[in-house]
Amino acid sequence: MRLFLVRHGETVDNVAGVYAGTRDSPLTAHGVLQAKRLATDFATKKRLRVTHIFSSDLKRAVDTAIAVVDELKGGDAPELKAKRLDLVQLPELRERDFRSGEGKKFGYVQTDAETPGEMRVRAGKFLEGWLLPILDGDGQEEAEGEEAVVVVAHGLILGSLWRVLLSRFGGSGLAGRPGVGEGHVAWSNTGYLELLVTAERDTSASPDVSDRAVAGDVGDDTLGGVGASARVVSPSLLSSGCPTSAMLGVSDRIVSERVISDSATSVVPSGDRKPQQPRYQMTVVGVNVLTHLEGLKKTRGGIGSARFDKRQRTMDSFFGPPSKKAKGDRG
To answer: Which residues are annotated as a binding site for substrate?
Structure first.
């Protein structure tokens, strides 16, 4: 399965340089164009079948995600791209709550903002409640194209989700990639992190297992407050926007695996053994992908940075095909 973690388009608060977490800052005119470019990018990806799309319930993320949904449903081969596709809006995917710092200029010292641990709790709930059920059911239905899940949210919460994913699945393909330095990943407006998540399934009976990571045991806090075995029955460029770096502290490759206890092997009767759960591996395909914005220029004179007005028309709309006139109208 392909997983795309996408940041919303440019907003009024991004341009103003103020902290916008739970503030419902709207997209700028340029941000809307970015969202449209993003939507076209997804609609033209070969053999990609978007089965689920999630977003924060804040307007800037919702509007960006809606652009993608609309393009997928109206583009080529909609039955392949977006069959029965609906947008799921979730408060768990909201940006960091800056609380007293909301609306303040970057650099404002705040002591009551939402903590990284609190954000990982939200990200963990999304993983357990939404992404894992999709992964567990991946491949059970015969369908054409590669399954993809799109998550449209905000830079800081995406960073928290990224850390939770690494803790759960590990990651490969990190070394030498632009945008992945020593401990951080960045998201520009409509930039996305593309991941490939694959499962190694073993249906043979096995003893009960315990979750450990090759790099060491993973605590509840790292998993966003959700135990590794828990299940929920129910997921301009870098200069514009708030800081989106997320500390990772990971090696080039960490593979999460289930370790079978030697002592358990000798004492568990075969009749009491249960099938292993799928073991997933995550590979980084692209970091802060922005190829869809190539050639896009921001309108000068402050128009591009202004709040988008639905009554505005894009330049493309002025250069559509000329209307056909009857011969009698000539001259």
So the answer is: 7-14, 60
